[in-house]
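[scheduler] slot 2 assigned
[scheduler] job type: sequence-to-structure, two independent chains
[scheduler] chain ordering preserved from manifest
[runner] begin chain α
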Amino acid sequence: MERIYNSKNKERKRYPVGPGSSIGHIRTYGGTLSALVREKRTRELLILSNNHVIANCTNGCDGRARRGDPVFHPSIGDGGRYRDIIARLYKWVPLIEGAENLVDAALAKPINRNYVFSRIIGLGDIEGEAEGKRGMRVKKVGRSSGLTCGEIIEEGFKTTITLEGRSFTFADQLVIDIPCREGDSGSIVVDNNNRAVGLLFAAQGNLGIANRIQHVTGLLGIDFTKRF
């Protein structure tokens, strides 16, 4: 069921909300809801996206974000307001300047489980994970460009990205020849069997850059949940 709350919003608000939808921290423009996951230790149901989307590029000690901060659907950049809070910031992997980062990833806890579902819009549920390899055909659903298809063209890529005016170096990344636009950050990248292979967080030219999903799930201590 779809509810339209504000016709002036760039993205209409929908409940329940699934991967591929607009989402963002109170202090960010926003990006894409990646997936529903469960924390291995607690089995908490959580929302996955980028640190720079739902945790404001925090390293955990800089005051840019703190646990419990509101996360909106649609994002502030898409017209979200306080009535649009869908989750609270729960956990993140710190983004560290002057070091080699592996992921741009964070988690938020839904304020109501009925507000979210696990199925990727237009693709279906995530069927586990797989290692991204050069030549692998992949897909993603982003807040801005929707469903697009492409191919992994490089593994083990190292690059420096500017986020919120600060430079961060990332190592062991996947480079994907796939259409993507601003706002697609956070899109989960899957293979033709709907296995997660990467977490999109940046684009250079017509190329998307994604964290290896094994780094994301390992550092956050999560696995994917289906049919919620």
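[runner] end chain α
[runner] begin chain β
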Amino acid sequence: MIKNNLLFKNNKIEDMEELKKLVDGIYFGEGPRWHDNKLWFSDFYSHKVMTLDENNVLETICEVPNQPSGLGWLPNGDLLIVSMLDRKILKFADGEISLHADLSEYVKHKCNDMVVSSDGTAYVGNFGMEDAGESVNTTHLMIVKPDGTILKGPDKLLFPNGTVITPDGKELIVGETLGAKLTSFKIDENGELINRKLWARTSPLIFLLIIKFLSSLGFDLSKVDFSKYSKSLHVPDGICLDEKNGIWIASPT
């Protein structure tokens, strides 16, 4: 459940009070994208990629046995899907699913969100750790070229998750969930990521230090009740850009 919808803009966080329920019956919606006048998303506990049209009609597009997550499109309209558990990028075209890229040799833990640029280059995050009980580790983004070629992207990221590309295609911003921050990179002419910068902190640095300390002691972070700190602790899960380049953050805390 998303407990907070936040807008990070002009270097401050603004609470967004008006929420509207669109549809019921979703187990765990993930990776929403607006495409062809429909909301596309993964419902990964039902293993389905689904759409919701402007009349609130749900449609199942395909099923992904190893849990779908991030979504994006190649320039020719083929759908790319992150398959979380087996760490693959799948392609859905003409009613059939095929393998686009196998990241399992490069990534040890579950893959999650993904953004795809206008030329079809995919940028894919991963947990960098097990769901609970494992020390917090940094990890890297993966870059998948339109032909399926795999490159290792920038490292030392703390649970890279929601990711956006600015409308001019020149900058990528990723939410580091366990880093409680947004980090930006310039996209070079080859689609690789350079010039890392802190785009914004979404929580005071002290919370990151506490998380790292608890993790170093082997503490199960899933048992921490972060809700009591929710007014000051915001961690970026899914993110998106608005028309003024403000970044919206879905925070699970």
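[runner] end chain β
[qc] chain β: The domain at 4-251 is CATH 2.120.10.30 (Neuraminidase).
[scheduler] slot 2 released
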